[in-house]
């Protein structure tokens, strides 16, 4: 892989990570604040807690798995040998 291709891939990975972070923040907001008025309780805890905390954690974990399988690539770091 050429150096320019490595930089393009690194940019793609960084952009995907920023996009995933934005999606997680939107999910957290909707799952937490969006369900604040719902009177449902699970184990005497409001639904917004379960969706905003546990649901967000599970969603973020799923997004990381998708990123690592679909976006990130494994690159060999080419070391230049020192000339003697």
Spatial gap, N to C terminus? 27 Å
- The ordered string of helix (H) and strand (E) elements is HEEH
Shape: elongated
Structural class: mainly alpha
How many structural domains in the coordinates? 1
- Topology, number of strands: 2
**Which range does the strand content fall in?**
under 5%
Query: What share of the residues lie within helices?
Result: 55-70%
Report mean pLDDT, rounded to a whole number.
Answer: 87
The biggest beta sheet reads: 2 strands, antiparallel
| Secondary structure tally, helices | 2
Unreliably modeled segments: none
CA radius of gyration: 20 Å
Strand order of the largest sheet: 1-2
Describe this structure as you would to a colleague.
This protein has 84 residues and is mainly alpha-helical. The protein has one domain (3-70). Helix content is 64%, strand content 5%. The protein has a two-stranded antiparallel ribbon. A hairpin with a 2-residue loop joins strand 1 and strand 2. Helix 1 (3-32) packs antiparallel against helix 2 (47-70). It starts with a helix and ends in a 14-residue tail after the last helix.
């Amino acid at each position: 892989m050429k150096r320019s291709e490595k930089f393009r891939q690194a940019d793609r990975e960084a952009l995907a990570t920023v996009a995933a972070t934005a999606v997680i923040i939107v999910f957290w907001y909707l799952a937490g604040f969006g369900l604040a008025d719902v009177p449902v309780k699970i184990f005497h805890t409001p639904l917004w807690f379960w969706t905003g905390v546990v649901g967000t954690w599970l969603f973020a974990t799923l997004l990381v798995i998708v990123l690592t399988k679909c976006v990130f690539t494994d690159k060999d770091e080419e070391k230049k040998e020192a000339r003697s």
